Amino acid sequence: MPTDDRADRATAAALLPLVGGPANVTSVAHCMTRLRLGLADPSRADEEALRAVPGVLGLVVDGGSYQVVLGPGVVARVTAAFEELVGRPTTAAELASRGAELKGERQRRNATPGRAALRRLAAVFVPLIPALIGCGVLAGVNGLLVNAGLLPRLTPALAAVASAFMALIAVFVGVNTAKEFGGTPVLGGAVAAIVVYPGVAKVTAFGVTLAPGQGGVLGALAAALLATCVERWCRGRVPAALDVLLTPTLTVLVAGLATLYGLMWAAGAVSAAIGTAADRLLTTTGAFAGLVLGGLFLPLVMLGLHQALIPIHTTLIEQQGHTVLLPILAMAGAGQVGAALAVYVRLRHDTSLRTTIRSALPAGLLGVGEPLIYGVSLPLGRPFLTACVGGAAGGAFVGFFAMLGDRVGATAIGPSGWALFPLLAGNRGWGVLLAIYAGGLLTGYAVGFAATYLFGVTDRVLASAGSGRPAGGPPGGRSPARSSR
Question: Burial code of 167-191, b = ≥16 C-beta within 10 A, e = fewer?
Fold first, then answer.
């Protein structure tokens, strides 16, 4: 068995008892960096012990949801090992024995509408990110080949490969929506497919002829939600003998007609408003908007709330071919890198923390900021705030050029930092886009470094490092929860 595989299994085995064992785990999923666990009884989880597990970079507790930060690549392998442990034959019986009481208690605790909506929205769109990344990278490569006049026989094939997923993304949104909200996934996909079906061009709603794709992912989301509601209504009223025939028929018919004669038109108006708002925001207040967005994005990542932006990014990519918001938000990671470098320079005697920074910095440069957030800036306190200052400066830089008419966008979501270079797109040549984005990164690095060097490391932290006490925490890349605030 490979060494990495043994380490991943060991990590999963160490995490399982600390979250209450298999009987306490109600759901297992992961995003790019986090193992997301639903717990029947969150009070059974040992947060301090979870943070101390080697390889764990941080912990985000959101009601009954425990998000264990493991980093890119590692999280997928640990999740697979964790699912294998939870999915053993005894687990189903243990989960059943917990009864409905703990589930009801967890639902009541997490019943705030905002948090519930964000969690479910993330569950619909997060599984789509790998395809968005892959197709976005290919679209960027194909654009470079076309502009350079290279491989003319290959570029049409690359365009087809890169564009096919985006052309049918509404179907995948419909499947995931129905699955998340308790419907039959294929029925959600069937109704959502209406949004992209070419035949809708023959339908007129509110005096306007519909266009294939009108409403985009928002229309698909609404259509699948309605289909789920219709299906669940039918399940409780249609006789069992006719359920297999009538329920899917009525679900597709009712939700399909409502999609054609209402939802596509309404969602199209909302999607158009999102695109118009994004354009006006950057055209009229680009520098200020960039400053606010770049400065606030790190706290959103820390809380896991950044997932709520995925539908907006996806809508912009559908409409314009790129999202103009992502390069600005990516500046938050640049501020984080600058802050970490300043901490590295200031705390010369804190070998443990410097080791953590060296190990987390490559991921930070590629836009994965959570290792630096949870391993460096957040435990120290003030460097987290100065990192936000650096992100605000970088965002203002990119936003300023948007005010001048030079808009930088990204053809996909997910990557950030240096990894975003192949995905750059906009209304200027690739050289201009590269220069603006690189200038924003350098501004974020420089301001994050300067703000942290001058104001982010207090005398108390310096004295702690100089005294020879470990500042970086136990092995596994964490620092203790010291605060310089």
Answer: eebbbbbbbbbbbbbebbbebbbbb
Look up residue 244 and give its amino acid. Answer: V
Is 31 labeled as catalytic in the residue annotation? yes
The answer to whether 471 and 465 are in contact (CB under 8 A) is: yes
Tell me what the mean pLDDT of segment 308-328 comes to: 87
Q: Which of 29, 41, 125 is nearest to 80 (CA)?
A: 29
| Residue 118 CB neighbour total at 10 angstroms | 18
Residue corresponding to tokens 């990671």: 333
Average of per-residue pLDDT across 398-421? 88
Active site residue: 31, 135, 234, 388, which one? Answer: 31
Question: Which residue, 379, 385, 344, 348, is CA-closest to 361?
Answer: 344
Q: In this structure, which amino acid lies at residue 96? A: A
Question: Which tokens is 77 given?
Answer: 């392998």
pLDDT attached to residue 438: 95
Asked if residue 391 lies in contact with residue 336, where contact means CB atoms within 8 angstroms, the answer is yes
**Separation of CA 87 from chain center:** 26
Is residue 479 over pLDDT 60? Answer: no
pLDDT tens digits, one per residue of 253-305: 999 999 999 999 999 888 889 888 888 888 889 899 999 999 999 888 777 67
- At residue 192 the predicted structure's pLDDT band, cuts being 50, 70 and 90, is very high
Query: 389, 277 in Cβ contact below 8 A?
Result: no
330: left (phi over 0), alpha (psi -120 to 50) or beta: alpha
Query: Could you tell me which residue, 25 or 482, shows the higher pLDDT?
Result: 25
Give per-residue pLDDT as tens, 346-404: 888 878 788 888 888 888 888 877 778 877 888 888 899 999 999 999 999 999 999 99
